[in-house]
Amino acid sequence: MRVGIPSLPCGNFLSVVKIIEKAGGSAEIVSQPSDLQRFDKLVLAGVGAFDYGMASLTSAGWADALGELVLVKRTPVLGICLGMQLMCDASEEGSLPGLGWIGGHVRRFIANPPAAIKIPHMGWNTVQVRKANPLIASTDGEQRFYFVHSYHAVCRDESDVLATTHHGSDVTAAFNRDHIFGVQFHPEKSHRFGLQLMKRFLEVPC
Amino acid sequence: MLKHRVIPCLLLQNQGLVKTMRFRKPVYVGDPINAIRIFNDKEVDELMVLDIDASRAGRQPDYALIEQFAGECFMPLCYGGGVQTVEQARQLFALGVEKVCLQTAALRDMKVIREIADRFGSQSVLFSLDVKKEFFKGLRPYSAASATTINRPWQTLLREAVDAGAGEILLNAVDHDGMMDGVDEALIREASQSIPVPLIAVGGVGSLEDIRKALVAGASAVSAGAFFVFYGPHRAVLITYPRPSDLEALMPAP
User: Fold this and answer.
1) Is B5-249 CATH 3.40.50.11750?
2) Do the Cβ atoms of A33 and A61 come closer than 8 Å?
3) Which of A149, A151, B166, B234 is a plausible cystine mate for B127, CB 3.0–4.6 Å?
4) Which CATH number describes the domain made up of A2-203?
5) Is B31 considered catalytic here?
6) pLDDT per residue over A113-150, tens digit each?
7) Residue B96 touches partner A, C-beta closer than 8 Å
8) Domain limits of chain A?
9) Which residues in chain B are closer than 8 Å to A48, comparing Cβ atoms?
10) Residue A110 — left, alpha, or beta (φ > 0 → left; ψ -120 to 50 → alpha)?
């Protein structure tokens, strides 16, 4: 199972490569959009600001190449953190349109006193599985993952929500529609929980 | 529910791990790669590695060594020591480090925090504030690189760092460093209430009860060095980390 990871300027991809290899797959950081078609699966990872991420995707031709593979050839894709948010329609963090693969907007956490929450939402949190899905089984027991984010995706269609986590209120921790997956947390930094999730992603049929 | 993080803090000197007392008398405690492997196996929440010589010597981060660290970490890794520019931060992130921790360069000018936050997001940059008791003046900010106190209120520096975009604050009570004599609850309380971002309290942890006290006082995370590398009254080197169930039991009710 070969996984391609677009080499965007906004990210830290070595850890993602390492977890995929530990999960039994092979991964490559891809520097040319046209090379993406050699891969069975894609991981869209990234950290940082929404507009910077979208600008990185559109300026170098990544968005077109990814759109062709994901929407036309139906290559399974996993978005991580900013990568997940970029799959939405738009974000309060920026003004550029998102990829629009999953209907929804990315909203900022609001710290409402007295139930003040710290922003960013940073650290280990448990997730609640919201539907049957190939990535996280509700029978796996408590699943905890490492989160670092100030914005979270709000799906237009509730049935796209795969799992939620609680920080002030319930927010989307993972979404999924068909072969498109997004996780707000960092599986590559979530010990055996992340490893398990990555193994499952590798098993998703192409 | 967001879980409070408990973070081993490893000090690096001449490519070896050391532990200090009140920022002095570094004692060699072992090989960093070996220690990081053990902490990874113990599934620690996060790991912090601080090179305590880099800024003092005006040296760059040891990228080759840090890359090896990152390769062992299936949890978030924060690096501090000698980071002065956004370009250095970029190199560290490219190696697999999640967060950089700044003090010396930020004390000169908080602009570097803003530049890193603008480019990589607030979550990727910590400001490390050390505070030390001064006779007749109370707690003062302390510059670890120059080993001098700074004649300004620590609260002001904290605010400046958060305004510049620091996504987290590492607050170190210098007088408690390595002493395992308990945390400064009043300091943690005041600091955490004054900032909207998470606070990592470090300095003085000698027991699980100390970790609990720091969390109750408002810390989002607690870091410790000696507590995780020393065992028993003679400070024999033994790397430990509490079991998840022990940590779970510590958590104050939300």
Assistant:
1) no
2) yes
3) B166
4) 3.40.50.880
5) no
6) 656 788 889 999 999 999 999 999 888 888 999 999 99
7) yes
8) 2-203
9) 119-121, 124
10) beta
